[in-house]
TrEMBL record:
It holds the Pfam family GHL10. SUPFAM superfamilies: (Trans)glycosidases. This is UPF0748 protein YngK. The keyword Magnesium does not apply. Gene3D superfamilies: Glycosidases.
């Protein structure tokens, strides 16, 4: 198990670390994520008719803009509907890549592998986002399904429900297939996290119950004694607990997170009204968090601050109270509401400020969706760059995960304003962080990719460089001083 920051640095790094020396309090550790939706070509790729090079260039542009805005994570939708945005032997290539399900990109490339490589160059984590049970989205209802789509493999357990095709979470073969899909990606790709959104059992279609009566009857016949609603919830609980355990068995450093519907049940907390995800989606999201199955919870608090019926701060505080294992809460924020609901950019700015004000309890935000920032809709990028994400940040430390400790930077040298060091060869470094000691705190100056070996600072003073591993554990530090004529080797 990696050492904690307390062991590494003592009391100093338990204190809030500031990015600026003025009156701001932007944290040096904060999860700053953006959802990158592929369903309906929402965020990327923008069209199913793009060439391979166009897809690559579009993704590079997206990552460049997020890096410039000091984001440090994307939640990339890799399985929107029983399909794959990566090279899979279990499921067909996605319709959203090529316009034909099962047809690979040409010239051939692996979009997920490409995304990971390019994101990591920019110190951006990649959390692979899966829809566990949707077999076809309504946006492709007239499109043919590939022969290896789950609807053809297990037709008795895939139903038309509303405009979609939906897998039956109560069928063991469906559960097993979903787990294989998740673990295949964990095994073969250098992802930083596994992510599920709010779709478990589907959102209800008015007047139509989900058609799983034969699966439930089989359960009862075999001796099961749960009522229908409890049985459905137990099916989802089983999936979440199973994934939590098996992801860590394969790679104990891969993070597991879910962004459920933001209201667990109406009345929690008092005065909250709205859709009941516990009884309608059969999602006992509070249980998943309280049991410690999740490394982070990102409740979709897609409401404004002030309306009391769905109060952003009231719901955030309630979710923070459920965090019995002291894992992480990263609020999901509805950035697209500046278009869809005509919210002001100030609303989103205030929401991040509220999350930050719950110091040491709320650790960041994930914004839906990336397109708002990439296209600077209603000036969102300008606002966030100037007022919200003004400087880089490391992702928060997850000390309960397991990974090798990062070695400290070696052969650190200074010459004038330039710093150099020998790049890591251990494979245990994800990035380097340089801090500047100003006004009695170490302010984060920059975060650099693992292959970096030099950096030029702009001010004289005392500095620290550390290496950081993939779960946020920092190495012991190398301290150095930059002066007008500094030239030295540090350790």
């Amino acid at each position: 198990m990696c050492q904690s920051l307390v062991q590494m640095f003592g009391l100093l790094f338990l204190l809030p670390v500031l990015v600026h020396s003025e009156d701001s309090s932007w944290p040096a550790r904060e999860f700053r994520g953006a959802f990158v939706a592929t369903v309906a070509n929402m965020d990327w790729p923008s069209s199913r008719h793009l060439t391979t090079n166009q897809q690559k260039n579009e993704l590079i542009n997206l990552l460049d803009k997020l890096q410039k805005l000091n984001f440090n994570a994307i939640v990339l939708q890799v399985r929107p509907a029983g399909d794959a945005l990566y090279n899979s032997k279990l499921e067909p290539w996605s319709y959203y890549l090529t316009g034909e399900q099962g047809k690979p990109p040409s010239p051939s490339y692996d979009p997920l592998e490409f995304a990971i490589t390019e994101a990591h160059k920019r110190n951006i984590e990649v959390h692979a986002w899966f829809n566990p049970y949707r077999a076809r989205s309504g946006s492709t209802s007239s499109v043919g399904l590939a022969q290896n789509n789950v609807a053809h493999i297990y037709p008795q357990y895939v139903y038309k429900y509303g405009h979609d095709l939906w897998m039956d979470p109560g069928a063991s073969v469906i559960q097993d297939h979903a787990v294989k899909v998740f673990l295949d990606v964990v095994t073969r790709y250098d992802i930083d996290g596994v992510h599920i959104d709010d779709y478990f059992y589907p959102y209800p279609v008015s007047g139509t119950d989900f058609p799983d009566s034969h699966t439930y009857s089989s359960y009862k016949t075999s001796g099961g004694n749960l009522g229908l609603s409890d049985w459905r919830r137990n099916n989802i609980n089983t999936l979440i607990q199973n994934l939590s355990t098996r992801i860590k068995t394969i790679k104990p450093y891969v993070k597991f997170g879910i962004s459920p519907f933001g209201i667990w049940q109406p009345g929690y907390p008092h005065g909250i009204h709205g859709f009941n995800s516990f009884t309608s989606l059969y999602a006992d999201s509070r249980k998943w968090f309280k049991e410690g199955w999740l490394d982070y919870l990102a409740p979709q608090l897609y409401w404004q601050i002030d309306p009391p019926a769905q109060s952003y701060p009231a719901l955030l505080d309630w979710w923070l109270e459920q965090n019995t294992h002291q894992h992480h809460v990263y609020t999901s924020n509805y950035a697209s509401a500046v278009i869809a609901k005509h919210w002001s950019t100030h609303e989103l700015e205030r929401q991040v400020e509220i999350s930050r004000s719950r110091d040491r309890k709320s650790f960041g935000n994930i914004h839906f969706s990336a397109k708002v920032f990439v296209e600077n809709m209603h000036g969102m990028s300008d606002v966030f760059h100037a007022k919200v994400y003004t400087s880089p940040a490391l992702t928060p430390e997850m000390s309960w995960l397991s990974c090798p400790n990062p070695p400290k930077p070696s052969n650190v040298k200074t010459h004038g304003y330039n710093i150099s060091w020998t790049p890591d060869t251990s494979g245990h470094v994800r990035s380097y962080a340089i801090f500047h000691f100003i006004a009695e705190v170490f302010g984060l100056v920059t975060v650099l990719p693992k292959d970096s070996s030099s950096f030029a600072v702009t001010e004289i003073g005392s500095y620290v460089i550390v290496s950081v591993n993939r779960i946020g554990i920092q190495s012991t530090e190398e301290r150095f001083t930059i002066g007008l004529s500094t030239s030295s080797v540090i350790g």
